[in-house]
Amino acid sequence: MKDELNMSLQPEKRPSEPRTEEEKQQLQNRLKRIEGQIRGIQKMVSDDRYCVDILIQLSAIQAALKKVGYTLLERHTKTCVSSSIKDGDGDHHIEELMKVIQQFSK
Amino acid sequence: MKDELNMSLQPEKRPSEPRTEEEKQQLQNRLKRIEGQIRGIQKMVSDDRYCVDILIQLSAIQAALKKVGYTLLERHTKTCVSSSIKDGDGDHHIEELMKVIQQFSK
Amino acid sequence: MKDELNMSLQPEKRPSEPRTEEEKQQLQNRLKRIEGQIRGIQKMVSDDRYCVDILIQLSAIQAALKKVGYTLLERHTKTCVSSSIKDGDGDHHIEELMKVIQQFSK
Amino acid sequence: MKDELNMSLQPEKRPSEPRTEEEKQQLQNRLKRIEGQIRGIQKMVSDDRYCVDILIQLSAIQAALKKVGYTLLERHTKTCVSSSIKDGDGDHHIEELMKVIQQFSK
């Protein structure tokens, strides 16, 4: 499925090393918190809160999302990218890594 | 309440012009979509999806949050900041605007 | 002249309030320092310095450029945008401000 | 030397594979162009050009610096990081890579 962010999703693909249950739980906890923060902003909009306050909370969510992203990036580099390098065909994964870093750092 | 993003929240403060119900509904629709996208990522984590795919979806959420933020920024500048400028004490609101722009653009 | 960053330059246009010589000097000092930092990186490339070190210095230049940008943004908002708001036709300048903020915060 | 951007410079360190003269020349050409753009902005300040026009040109320089940075990042990952991974001690270099990516993407 082509994603409008010009990098195609690869639904069949899995990490070179499956995530442990503990890894999954840590990610889910952080995502649950972010989900709660989004609902918090919905409430601020209903309460017609001051615009700057809502923007501050939006910034907090962006910061939290970035942290999740960098956790995924590091894990990906230490597993999928590293194993492809050890197998001698790292360039494709490195170029993919650079593309997603640029996408994610916009 | 001091927010760890070093700008204090002002829970009592309201926009100089209350948001219309239509404005609120548009913001809520976008926030609901973002909330859904977060849950989508939770599912990707459970399904142990490929790291790059999750990062692409995270980038999409960041882009959506940015759009919401810029909508709020423009509205804030056209209402609260403008009315303070017309009242002759715009500097405080402009400095606050610059601070939140830097915060939001990190 | 159409700039590839999709905002047209307006060479004939001047700030609503001319910059003082002191303002100009402060901006020029900072720009001179940045120019020196760029030459510093050219030297690092000639000396075949470690990539991460060059990237750290590039980040320092980006941070310095951002500060110059936010100084210009605040000045612009306090002069050109404010005077247009007082004259009752602020919306155009506010929309232009939002566009340049998005451009500048990429 | 401790850099205020909290990552220490490593003046003695060199890339695992020296840059070719061609690589160096390409980087120098781009850095020369950026240097010229900085001087262009100095002229715009002297000519008291419209703030938004200067900001547009600043954004162009930021974009050019980012491109140089991503070229360095990709080269670094394909050489220094890859060789450390093949040598079995990739984690340090990967963590350093993540840190400089976050620094560079601010």
Your description of this structure?
The structure is a homotetramer of 106-residue chains. The N terminus of chain A is likely disordered. Helices cover 73% and strands 0% of the residues of chain A. Chain A is elongated, with a radius of gyration of 17 Å. Chain A has a single domain, classed as Methane Monooxygenase Hydroxylase, Chain G, domain 1 (Up-down Bundle). Chain A is mainly α. Chain A has three helices and no strands. The interface between A and B is large, with 57 and 57 residues.
Short description:
By secondary structure, chain A is mainly alpha-helical.
Task: Please outline the helices and strands.
Four copies of one chain form a homotetramer.
Chain A: H1 21-46, H2 51-86, H3 90-104
Helix pairs in contact in A: 1-2, 2-3
Element pattern of chain A in H and E: HHH
Radius of gyration of chain A: 17 Å
Number of helices of chain A: 3
Count of DSSP strands of chain A:
0
Q: Give the helix proportion of chain A (percent range).
A: over 70%
Give the overall form of chain A: elongated
How would a crystallographer describe the biggest sheet of chain A?
none
In the CATH hierarchy, what is the superfamily of chain A? Metal-sensitive repressor, helix protomer
- Overall domain count of chain A: 1
Return the CATH class of chain A: Mainly Alpha
CATH topology of chain A: Methane Monooxygenase Hydroxylase, Chain G, domain 1
The second-level CATH architecture of chain A is Up-down Bundle
Instruction: Briefly note the structural class of the backbone of chain A.
Output: mainly alpha
Percent strand of chain A equals under 5%
Oligomer: homotetramer
- Poorly predicted regions of chain A are 1-5
Protein chains sharing the most extensive interface: A-B, 57 and 57 residues
Mean pLDDT of chain A: 93
Give the termini separation of chain A: 22 Å
Organism (chains A, B, C, D): Guptibacillus hwajinpoensis
Region (Disordered) (chains A, B, C, D): 1-25
GO molecular function, one term (chains A, B, C, D): metal ion binding
InterPro entries (chains A, B, C, D): Metal_Tscrpt_repr, Metal_Tscrpt_repr_sf
